[in-house]
């Protein structure tokens, strides 16, 4: 029935849904641009009012684009100029990009044609002369990029740009920073003069920015300043960011620069890659009268920092000294940096073959009592001495990743004593060459929440004492320790608040075969990574008590045996302890079986990944509880069929299905449901649908896409199937009817008659009921049994009941027949004294009994009482009298008792039978 329904739906799923799905998949996987760019672009791409005409070798602006364009990208073409007429079709343009062309000049009418223009990018062209008229109407322009041209400014070319916030004239061989003589550019925020040829800043160079009260950023990167006239920054004293990266100036010029910055609003100063090899105690003197918060000195090859060099920078919050060559940190270097929050020393202390291992003196960081983050990444230091970090009383994060410190190879309870007063939250020891962690080595870190120990060489059994004192720890990362770590039942007893624990590629293969489980104290654990450990043995109680576990990573282990039904003691259902799982990864485990109850109860599971296993036939209900599933990965298995019995529930809410590279069997039974599902689903993304879902069998479909499978071929089966079901049902019903009629036909006949009589109203039972009967019972018996009647029934008349005996009570003067009819009508009940003799008696059979029954049926009374003197078979009874025991109520069928002592009881029963109401009871 199911199949019929699905085929019906299939017929209504047009072919183009497939195409649509493919395009969608492409978009989801690679973003919209690459789907289009896959084949080389030959014309402009227009989307949402934006036209992309880049890289088309165009010599002019195409005239036939939609007139309502707001954005036009003409970059990387062969434009020699932008004649305004070529843009008249697009008066609504807000953004025009003509970078990377061969434009030699801007033409005055441009902004007249494009009055709304906001951004104009002319980067990397050949613009030579720039005059006032060229930009005269560009009052709406907010961004102008003229970088990498050959600018010769004539007059005041920028004077009209009232709205301009961003101006880039870098790399133009400008001989002066002076872009005009009158005050202009009132809205300017960001000015780049980088990579130009001037070496002097005269005191009126920036006077044209006198009234640019929003100016914040000045970029002078790679400008080799030699002379700074006093007061050169005065007109722009509101700048907050100055970038001097790559300028080849010496320490002396920097000192001059700083003194010119004195009194400005400078906040961020970037002095990267300037060959600033030494810092003296006067270099930054000029910055004392500023509120500088961020200073970047990275990449300067700096070897020497005089003591007190930073003492002027009491407001500094961030100092980057990365990529330098500092040999020796002494206790006076950071003097005065009382506000410093972040110190980045990445690659600042390095060992080379020509130099010794750098040294950090005791108390070097003591002045930095506001420091919250210290980054010592990729440094080498000879020794972590007893007071190396003393004084860092605000330190929250210490990054010592990828370092080579001898002291970190074997971390003892002495290694970090200098951090005992630091409220450290995060300690990063990734790749720090750690080989051993000893009892109590982290015990000074009472406030630590995150400990990173990935990519080390830890080779030991964790007894639990290593984590002593980590009272607040929530996350321990210990992946990539080369499968040398062993666990014990007590490994984590000291860290009961742990939320995250990663042990991927760290454990020896037998590490988890412990009872009780090492994880049993971790009831708060939400994330557990045990991947890449080659683990083969785990116990059923491994996750017991992990009631909060959400993510479990077990990929790249060897857990196939654990889930085999042939496993000694049955499959190990280790997931039953972790019913809150939302993500379960078990790829690459050699699994060929999933036990029926393995995933039972995981109703919150959203991601299930079982790729790269050997799964073939999946049992019907294994995924039955997974009704929250959003992502299912089953790629690279041996799955041949995708049946609804297995997949209907997990696929009902899916947003991602990855099931490619399986040897699908493309037959109606195996694949039709899946195909139909894929055509129907619009919320599930199925990447690689065309290429990765191919048929393995049957031969006709070998190596073709599952989507090529002809679903209509399954339809032919349905009429036959329907016919089969129909005919078999008919035969079955016929058989049942025949049997019923054979064995219970009389019952239907009887009730039918009563029903007919009552509904057609031949009689009215309730009226009948009230009628006065003359007799209690009309007795029908064979002549031979008359004596029994005389002896046994007649005496009962004394006790207020009255029988009608035909011999005795025949109405005088009436014919016998008429008398019988009359008397039966006058009697409430009809009592048959059943014996073989009665059944043989033709008179009784033919007339009396017939008449009585006629009466019964007509009056709809259930007024027959049978008294059996002999055991008579029901069959004989129905043959002769058209009566059966089953037609009557049990109390109206009496047997004459064999035992004398039971005769009174018989009498009692008989009276009850006679005294009953006659109404037929439904
Ligand atoms: C531009 O005009 C075309 C019709 O010429 C219209 O389909 C499109 O929606 C318009 N686009 C915008 C951004 O107004
Ligand atoms: C700078 O250091 C020198 C000695 O190296 C010292 O004489 C001088 O007073 C120091 N200057 C300041 C401003 O600290
Ligand atoms: C530095 O900040 C203080 C307080 O915020 C302020 O009074 C002072 O003027 C600022 N100095 C400069 C040079 O901006
Ligand atoms: C430290 O400096 C290096 C080099 O400049 C940089 O790559 C890194 O991002 C910085 N680290 C932090 C945390 O800012
Ligand atoms: C590490 O130090 C502990 C005690 O300080 C010592 O017992 C152990 O042998 C050391 N381990 C290594 C690998 O040096
Ligand atoms: C460090 O551990 C040793 C034993 O390994 C112990 O004697 C010593 O007291 C510990 N020191 C601290 C500061 O806990
Ligand atoms: C740890 O944090 C608490 C408050 O969060 C603070 O009182 C305590 O001083 C900190 N411990 C250390 C060693 O700084």
UniProtKB/TrEMBL annotation:
The keyword Membrane belongs to this UniProt entry's keyword annotation: yes
Keywords tagged on the record: Glycoprotein, Immunity, Inflammatory response, Innate immunity, Leucine-rich repeat, Membrane, Receptor, Repeat, Signal, Transmembrane, Transmembrane helix
Annotated localization: Membrane
Membrane topology: Single-pass membrane protein
Gene Ontology molecular functions: signaling receptor activity
Pfam families: LRR_5, LRR_8, TIR, Tlr3_TMD
GO process terms (BP): inflammatory response; innate immune response; toll-like receptor signaling pathway
Domain TIR: start-end pairs: 773-914
Parts of the chain that traverse the membrane: 722-741
GO cellular component, one term: plasma membrane
Family assignment from sequence similarity: Belongs to the Toll-like receptor family.
Official protein name in the record: TIR domain-containing protein
Source organism per UniProt: Sparus aurata (Gilthead sea bream)
Originating gene: tlr3
């Amino acid at each position: 029935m199911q199949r019929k329904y699905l085929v019906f739906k299939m017929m209504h799923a047009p072919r183009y849904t497939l195409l649509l799905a493919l395009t969608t998949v492409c978009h989801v996987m690679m973003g919209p641009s690459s789907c289009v760019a896959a084949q080389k672009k030959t014309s402009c791409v227009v989307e949402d009012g934006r036209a992309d005409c880049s890289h088309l070798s165009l010599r002019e602006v195409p005239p036939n684009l939609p007139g309502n364009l707001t954005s036009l990208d003409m970059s990387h073409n062969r434009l020699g100029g932008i004649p305004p007429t070529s843009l008249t079709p697009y008066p609504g343009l807000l953004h025009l990009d003509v970078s990377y062309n061969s434009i030699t000049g801007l033409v005055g009418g441009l902004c007249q044609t494009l009055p709304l223009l906001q951004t104009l990018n002319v980067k990397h062209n050949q613009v030579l002369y720039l005059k006032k008229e060229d930009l005269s109407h560009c009052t709406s322009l907010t961004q102008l990029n003229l970088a990498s041209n050959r600018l010769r400014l004539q007059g005041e070319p920028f004077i009209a740009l009232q709205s301009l916030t961003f101006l880039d004239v870098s790399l133009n061989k400008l001989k002066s920073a002076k872009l005009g003589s009158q005050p202009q550019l009132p809205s300017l925020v960001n000015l780049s003069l980088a990579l130009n040829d001037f070496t002097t800043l005269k005191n009126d160079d920036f006077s044209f920015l006198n009234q640019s009260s929003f100016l914040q950023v000045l970029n002078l990167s790679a400008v080799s300043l030699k002379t700074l006239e006093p007061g050169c920054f005065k007109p722009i004293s509101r700048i907050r960011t100055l970038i001097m990266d790559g300028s080849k100036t010496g320490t002396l010029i920097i000192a001059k620069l700083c003194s010119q910055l004195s009194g400005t609003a400078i906040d961020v100063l970037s002095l990267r890659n300037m060959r600033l090899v030494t810092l003296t105690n006067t270099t930054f003197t000029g910055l004392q009268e500023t509120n500088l918060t961020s200073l970047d000195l990275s990449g300067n090859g700096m070897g020497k920092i005089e003591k007190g060099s930073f003492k002027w920078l009491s407001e500094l919050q961030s100092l980057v000294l990365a990529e330098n060559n500092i040999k020796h940190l002494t206790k006076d270097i950071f003097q005065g940096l009382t506000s410093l929050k972040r110190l980045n020393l990445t690659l600042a202390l390095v060992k080379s073959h020509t130099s010794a291992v750098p040294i950090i003196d005791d108390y070097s960081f003591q002045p930095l009592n506001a420091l919250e983050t210290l980054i010592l990444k990729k440094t080498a230091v000879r020794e972590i001495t007893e007071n190396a970090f003393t004084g860092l009383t605000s330190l929250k994060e210490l990054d010592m990743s990828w370092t080579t410190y001898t002291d970190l190879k074997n971390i003892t309870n002495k290694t970090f004593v200098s951090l005992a007063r630091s409220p450290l939250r995060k300690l990063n020891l990734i790749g720090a060459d750690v080989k051993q962690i000893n009892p109590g080595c982290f015990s000074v870190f009472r406030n630590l929440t995150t400990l990173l120990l990935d990519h080390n060489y830890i080779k030991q059994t964790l007894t639990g004492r290593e984590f002593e004192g980590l009272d607040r720890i929530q996350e321990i990362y210990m992946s990539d320790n080369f499968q040398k770590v062993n666990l014990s039942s007590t490994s984590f007893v000291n860290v009961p608040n742990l939320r995250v624990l990663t042990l991927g590629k760290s454990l020896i293969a037998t590490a988890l075969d412990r009872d009780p489980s090492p994880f049993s104290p971790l009831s708060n654990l939400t994330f557990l990574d045990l991947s890449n450990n080659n683990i083969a043995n785990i116990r059923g109680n491994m996750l017991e008590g992990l009631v909060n576990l959400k993510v479990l990573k077990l990929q790249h282990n060897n857990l196939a045996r654990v889930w085999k039904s042939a496993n000694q003691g049955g499959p190990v259902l280790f997931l039953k302890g972790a019913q809150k799982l939302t993500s379960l990864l078990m790829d690459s485990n050699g699994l060929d079986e999933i036990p029926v109850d393995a995933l039972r109860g995981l109703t919150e599971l959203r991601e299930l990944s079982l790729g790269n296993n050997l799964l073939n036939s999946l049992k019907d209900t294994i995924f039955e509880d997974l009704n929250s599933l959003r992502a299912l990965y089953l790629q690279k298995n041996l799955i041949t069929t995708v049946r609804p019995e297995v997949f209907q529930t997990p696929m009902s809410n899916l947003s991602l299905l990855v099931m490619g590279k399986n040897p699908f069997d493309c037959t109606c039974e195996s694949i039709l449901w899946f195909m139909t599902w894929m055509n129907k689903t619009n919320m599930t993304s199925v990447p690689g649908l065309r290429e990765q879902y191919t048929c393995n069998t049957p031969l006709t479909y070998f190596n073709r896409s599952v989507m090529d499978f002809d679903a209509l071929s399954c339809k032919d089966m349905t009429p036959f199937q329907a016919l089969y079901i129909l005919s078999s049902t008919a035969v079955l019903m016929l058989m049942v009817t025949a049997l019923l009629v054979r064995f219970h036909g009389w019952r239907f006949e009887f009730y039918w008659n009563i029903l007919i009589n009552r509904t057609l109203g031949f009689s009215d039972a309730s009226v009948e009921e009230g009628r006065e009967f003359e007799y209690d019972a009309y007795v029908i018996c064979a002549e031979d049994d008359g004596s029994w009647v005389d002896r046994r029934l007649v005496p009962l008349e004394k006790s207020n009941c009255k029988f009608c005996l035909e011999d005795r009570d025949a109405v005088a003067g009436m014919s016998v027949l008429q008398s019988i009819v009359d008397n039966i009508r006058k009697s409430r009940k009809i009592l048959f004294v059943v014996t073989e003799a009665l059944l043989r008696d033709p008179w009784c059979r033919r007339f009396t009994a017939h008449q009585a029954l006629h009466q019964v049926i007509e009056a709809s009374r259930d007024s027959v009482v049978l008294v059996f003197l002999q055991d008579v078979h029901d069959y004989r009874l129905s043959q002769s009298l058209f009566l059966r025991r089953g037609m009557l109520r049990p109390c109206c069928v009496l047997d004459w008792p064999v035992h004398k002592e039971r005769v009174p009881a018989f009498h009692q029963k008989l009276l009850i039978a006679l005294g009953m109401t006659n109404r037929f009871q439904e």
